């Protein structure tokens, strides 16, 4: 057993065999996998089977590994950390090692593997190289979820990398974000390796290991800042087996696939980072390149790295030049065979330049993760130009959220992308909230109309975070549906339904989404996702038919709207802003988003999320876009407000603004101008009130020129064909101001067929109808008749309130009853007989939500109670009392009528807000008043048993003290008169004699009175005044906005009312009843909701889109002209200048080199001239020697600062590129 414990892991594994056929499998150097299976057709299938077999064997032998060959290491000393290790042989299958890392040790599959090569000789690190490790490599590993592979030993660059990992772990605040550093070290190079193989009393006890800083030699300690170690026992006859194993492991990892939070997956990218390096690195580098592994060479680090950079900059690597540079770089290399082998390896390596990328930190300012991604893209680009071959790199860019690299290196025009190639990464970008990539993909061929199907939309809703509010809302609707399905599927108690198998995450359907939207938008989302297949109960089970599965691939009718709603419901504001900017009907969409976020902010329990929802600017977007439309064309803006939208269930912009409670939107001048037009109807808006009143009381004035009608100035050709074009101003005005269904505006014949009499009668009837159907006339009639109603009510209460039947009621009172009956009919019409298609219960709920409707219900209820009591002799006086109170309620109803007034309307809002302050004041006042009243009652009248007098003295009398009514003869003992009083409770109750006041401690009563008056009249009353002043200052700025919103509600109410006022309104009710029986719709509502012809509606949508583009262009222009952007631009230009100035040093070096070469050439020519001038060929003077710096200067790399500056200026150049997917909209997101 002891011998077995000392055996490495690789020797314990028998030859791998297939799980299906049992054939032996051999290692393939070409594919770095096990091959030889006869039942598997592909390499991947063979790999899967081998992995399953190895996993089962690993689990079977787990008890053996725990005995010392696989276990934990506790690093003791100054840094107390714990790591994991496994001891393997050099020929161990890399599949087994990878599964040990991921399955046994629980490491998540990496999204990048960086193998650190070289740097073993670097005992002293340069500051910039240390920053590359700390801020570059470790930061890149953290942000990308990468593994870092090193030799795991505490010397050279690996030691400094471990220190960088330690600094990161100390600075990191999240336990989930950590850097995985894996050491693959030869077993023979480990110092004190006996500590890992010693026997332990327990199998699971970790080994204790003390790391030490040892001098450069043959053994080194393990680095305590690495988390996992693979210790390789090399065959003495095969030196360098550890490097070969690392190459095979990298090849195997590169064939695995991983995902990054989305639906897609990509092959794990592998990259080798070369730092310095000795010539023995060349063999390992050549094998890695043979496996198509890209290499990132760190320029300036010395050794092989600088030598390769120099040769790459030269552009040629013949044998002589490579040999010369090799000797210059490594002067101690004298063995000819090794040098010739190294030269061949260098030439072979440089022949694969597409796999080599140079990073010079002193010349480049790019982050290391950017450089790594560019190196991977470069390696892929050199192998193929097909779009499919770039998908893994594109997925990696999406995973790292590096849209800049995707633009510059992937979508640079070299690869022709098809829409089908980008569908998977598009889903990843949507699910992982990458709005920049969504813009990029749409700009490069993704057509959302073809991409977004109902099936994909449902997948997007499946990806909703479980911690979000929207997920909770969907889950609630899902449970409600399951209850309904369970009730119809199986008998049992209410609410019982079988749970889902395995408690899996519920798969939400668009049915639940529609229900959630219904709660937010009400009728504005009617019909959303109604045709989409959902689970249906049938014969006690749930099923999906083939037809339903096919329908899930049906394309969405409004893709931009659907994605906008999906983003808004998850509070992804940048994504939602982009979809809003790209979608149609911008004003309506912004108001819908405003409504949804307001409702979600009210439900959100997390303060930060609720704050971000409240700060969303969709109401401002709607206001600004409509302002742009209104400034371009007033009449088209009016049509935009009243047209029935296609994307929002035929709702108008005004309806959506009402749902969203967008008071600022209603305060816009364009909306108010439209309301004014609707208020005055066919009359001109500048009609004087005096003329209106005169025409109201003297109807013949209607047919004079006293009142002008705006529609008579237009061409009255009101047929539908005139709306085909929207270019005519008259047509646009007629669009809003004429009634298409008015029979008085059309005639069966032309003008020649009409007689003078018929024209005259049509003129009289048209004016009569348009005057009395205007909202302002209806309002005036209702106000006058309401005053008449109150006058009649007053007359009945004060002068003609007769006794109960049979003596009463009188004719005037009966008329009052009929009047109230017509008011009841009107309230019933307003509540139940509306155009909206909804249940009666919901109609009643919407009716009750209005405060003035509640007031009407209270007034009518009191009137019914009062009349009922008034008819009975015993309750006659109670009926009079109730009717008197009811009169007060009817009178207070006048406040609503005055809300239309420009001066009185805002004041009513201020009074309403101050009423809330009064309630808070009454709370403080009542507390102090009760305290004072009870105390004085106990001191003055302790023996009074009369309850009514107790309340009178404890509550009523202190209240009168506030207003100065202080009966001192009842409080002050010195002023109390002498009366015949008693302390007998029976006499007091019978009222024979009053109770005697208690004069003991009367001074305390006087003191309490003084304090009470001081607090109430000075402190509390001034507090109330201060509260009123604060409320007035706060509300005064927004009073106009609130009043304009109330004005809209009042105009809509009177616009929809019949022309006749109560009690004559019953005639209108009967006429509407008859019209409903013959199914003739009223045309009055057309002023607020218009169904435009298809051509005209499309032109209006296009016009709105153009105005939205103008608005976005204006925002972009303001963004680039802001001080912050100007500072950024200036800083970028300064950096470019500094880079150019830095390039001057290279130019200076070149000039010095050229001067030396010219001087050398001149001396050589002079020497040759002297030689030829003499008679003999031998010159007595030696040939001049070349300058020492000449050989080094010709190897100087050529810099290209001007080209880099030009590229940066091209990338950073601002400007509006037009409306489209390539727009970034930073001005919206900020």
Automatic annotation (TrEMBL):
UniProt feature, compositional bias: Polar residues: 1190-1200
InterPro entries xref list: Ion_trans_dom, TRPM, TRPM-like, TRPM_SLOG
Residues spanning the membrane: 771-796, 919-940, 1000-1025
Topology of this chain in the membrane: Multi-pass membrane protein
GO molecular function: calcium-activated cation channel activity; ligand-gated calcium channel activity
UniProt-annotated location(s): Membrane
Keywords for the protein's UniProt record, in alphabetical order: Ion channel, Ion transport, Membrane, Transmembrane, Transmembrane helix, Transport
Protein known as: Transient receptor potential cation channel subfamily M member 5
Species the sequence originates in: Zoarces viviparus
């Amino acid at each position: 057993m002891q011998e077995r414990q000392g055996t490495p892991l690789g020797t314990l594994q028998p030859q791998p065999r297939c799980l299906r056929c049992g054939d032996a499998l051999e290692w393939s150097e070409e594919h770095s996998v096990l091959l030889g299976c006869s039942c598997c057709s592909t390499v991947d299938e063979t790999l899967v089977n081998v992995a399953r077999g190895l996993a089962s064997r690993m689990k079977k032998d787990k008890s053996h590994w725990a005995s010392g060959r696989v276990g934990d290491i506790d690093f003791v000393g100054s840094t107390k950390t714990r790591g994991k290790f496994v001891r393997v042989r050099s020929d161990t299958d890399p599949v087994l090692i990878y599964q040990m890392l991921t399955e046994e040790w629980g490491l998540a599959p990496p999204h990048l593997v960086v193998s650190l090569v070289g740097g073993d000789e670097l005992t002293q690190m340069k500051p910039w190289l240390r920053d590359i490790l700390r801020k570059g490599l470790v930061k890149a590993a953290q942000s990308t979820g990468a593994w870092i592979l090193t030799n795991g030993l505490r010397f050279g660059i690996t030691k400094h990398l471990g220190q960088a990992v330690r600094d990161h772990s100390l600075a990191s605040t999240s336990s989930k974000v950590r850097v995985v550093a894996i050491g693959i070290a030869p077993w023979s190079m480990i110092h004190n390796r006996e500590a890992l193989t010693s026997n332990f009393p327990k199998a699971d006890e970790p080994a204790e290991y003390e790391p030490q800083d040892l001098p450069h030699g043959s053994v080194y300690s393990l680095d305590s800042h690495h988390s996992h170690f693979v210790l390789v026992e090399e065959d003495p006859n095969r030196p360098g087996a550890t490097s070969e194993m690392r190459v095979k492991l990298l090849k195997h990892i590169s064939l695995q696939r991983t995902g990054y939070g989305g639906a897609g997956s990509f092959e794990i990218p592998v990259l080798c980072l070369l730092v310095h390096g000795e010539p023995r690195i060349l063999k390992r580098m050549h094998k890695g390149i043979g496996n198509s592994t890209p290499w990132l060479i760190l320029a300036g680090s010395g050794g092989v790295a600088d030598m390769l950079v120099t040769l790459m900059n030269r552009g040629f690597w013949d044998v002589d030049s490579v040999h010369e540079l090799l000797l210059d770089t490594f002067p101690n290399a004298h063995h000819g065979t090794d040098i010739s082998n190294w030269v061949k390896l260098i030439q072979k390596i440089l022949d694969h330049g597409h796999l080599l990328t140079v990073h010079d930190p002193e010349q480049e300012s790019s982050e290391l993760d950017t450089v790594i991604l560019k190196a991977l893209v470069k390696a892929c680009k050199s192998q193929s130009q097909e779009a499919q071959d770039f998908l893994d790199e594109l997925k990696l860019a999406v995973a790292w959220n590096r849209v800049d690299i995707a633009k510059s290196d992937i979508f640079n025009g070299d690869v022709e992308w098809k829409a089908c190639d980008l569908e998977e990464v598009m889903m990843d970008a949507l699910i992982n909230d990458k709005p920049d990539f969504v813009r990029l993909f749409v700009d490069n061929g993704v057509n959302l109309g073809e991409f977004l199907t109902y099936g994909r939309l449902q997948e997007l809703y499946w990806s909703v975070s479980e911690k979000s509010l929207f997920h909770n809302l969907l889950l609630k609707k899902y449970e409600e549906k399951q209850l309904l399905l369970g009730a119809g599927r199986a008998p049992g108690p209410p609410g019982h339904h079988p749970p889902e198998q395995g408690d899996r995450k519920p798969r939400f359907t668009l049915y639940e989404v529609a229900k959630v939207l219904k709660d937010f938008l009400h009728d504005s989302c009617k019909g959303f996702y109604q045709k989409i297949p959902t689970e249906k109960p049938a014969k006690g089970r749930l099923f999906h038919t083939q037809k339903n599965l096919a329908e899930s691939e049906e394309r969405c009718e409004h893709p931009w709207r659907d994605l906008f709603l999906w983003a808004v419901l998850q509070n992804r504001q940048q994504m939602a802003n982009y979809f809003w900017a790209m979608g149609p009907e911008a004003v309506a969409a912004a108001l819908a988003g405003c409504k949804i976020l307001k409702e979600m902010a009210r439900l959100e329990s997390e303060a930060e999320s609720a704050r971000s929802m409240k700060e969303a600017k969709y109401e401002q977007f709607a206001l600004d876009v409509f302002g742009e439309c209104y400034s371009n064309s007033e009449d088209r803006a009016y049509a935009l407000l009243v047209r029935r939208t296609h994307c929002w269930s035929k709702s108008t912009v005004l309806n959506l603004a009402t749902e969203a409670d967008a008071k600022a939107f209603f305060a816009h001048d364009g909306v108010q101008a439209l309301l004014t037009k609707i208020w005055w109807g066919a009359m001109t808006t500048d009609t004087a009130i005096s003329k209106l009143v005169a025409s109201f009381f003297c109807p013949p004035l209607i047919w004079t020129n006293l009142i002008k009608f705006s529609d008579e100035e237009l061409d009255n050709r009101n047929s539908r064909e005139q709306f085909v074009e929207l270019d005519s101003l008259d047509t646009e005005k007629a669009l809003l101001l004429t009634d298409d269904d008015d029979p008085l505006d059309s005639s069966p014949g032309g003008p020649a067929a009409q007689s003078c009499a018929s024209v005259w009668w049509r003129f009289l009837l048209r004016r009569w109808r348009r005057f009395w159907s205007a909202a302002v006339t209806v309002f005036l009639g209702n106000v006058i008749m309401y005053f008449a109603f109150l006058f009649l009510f007053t007359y009945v209460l004060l002068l003609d309130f007769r006794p109960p039947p049979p003596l009463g009621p009188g004719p005037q009172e009966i008329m009052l009853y009929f009047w109230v009956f017509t008011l009841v009919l009107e309230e019933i019409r307003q509540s139940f007989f509306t155009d909206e298609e909804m249940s009666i219960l919901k109609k009643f709920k919407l009716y009750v939500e209005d405060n003035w409707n509640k007031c009407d219900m209270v007034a009518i209820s009191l009137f019914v109670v009062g009349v009922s009591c008034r008819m009975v002799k015993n309750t006659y006086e109670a009926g009079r009392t109730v009717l008197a109170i009811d009169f007060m309620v009817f009178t207070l109803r006048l406040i609503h009528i005055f809300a239309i007034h420009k001066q009185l309307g805002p004041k009513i809002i201020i009074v309403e807000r101050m009423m809330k302050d009064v309630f808070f004041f009454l709370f403080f006042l009542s507390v102090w008043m009760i305290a004072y009243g009870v105390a004085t009652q106990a001191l003055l009248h302790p023996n009074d048993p009369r309850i009514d007098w107790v309340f009178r003295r404890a509550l009523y009398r202190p209240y009168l003290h506030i207003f100065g009514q202080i009966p001192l003869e009842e409080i002050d003992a010195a002023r109390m008169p002498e009366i015949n009083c008693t302390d007998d409770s029976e006499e007091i109750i019978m009222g024979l004699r009053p109770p005697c006041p208690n004069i003991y401690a009367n001074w305390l009563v006087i003191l309490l009175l003084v304090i009470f008056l001081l607090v109430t009249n000075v402190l509390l009353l001034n507090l109330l005044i201060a509260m009123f002043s604060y409320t007035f200052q706060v509300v005064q700025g927004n009073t106009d906005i609130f009043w304009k919103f109330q004005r809209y509600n009042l105009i809509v109410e009177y616009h929809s009312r019949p022309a006749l006022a109560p009690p004559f309104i019953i005639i209108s009710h009967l006429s509407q009843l008859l019209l409903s029986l013959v199914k003739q719709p009223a045309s009055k509502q057309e002023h607020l909701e218009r169904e435009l012809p298809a051509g005209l509606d499309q032109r209006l949508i296009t016009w709105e889109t153009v105005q939205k583009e103008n608005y976005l262009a204006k925002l972009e222009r303001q963004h680039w002209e802001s001080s912050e952007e100007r500072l950024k631009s200036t800083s970028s230009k300064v950096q470019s200048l500094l880079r150019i100035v830095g390039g001057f040093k290279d130019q200076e070096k070149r000039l010095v080199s050229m001067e030396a070469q010219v001087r050398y050439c001149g001396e050589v020519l002079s020497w040759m001239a002297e030689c030829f001038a003499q008679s003999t060929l031998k010159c007595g003077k030696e040939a001049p020697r070349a300058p020492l710096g000449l050989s080094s200067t010709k190897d100087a790399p050529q810099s290209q600062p001007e080209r880099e500056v030009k590229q940066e200026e091209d990338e950073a150049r601002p400007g509006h590129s037009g409306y489209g997917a390539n727009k970034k909209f930073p001005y919206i997101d900020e």
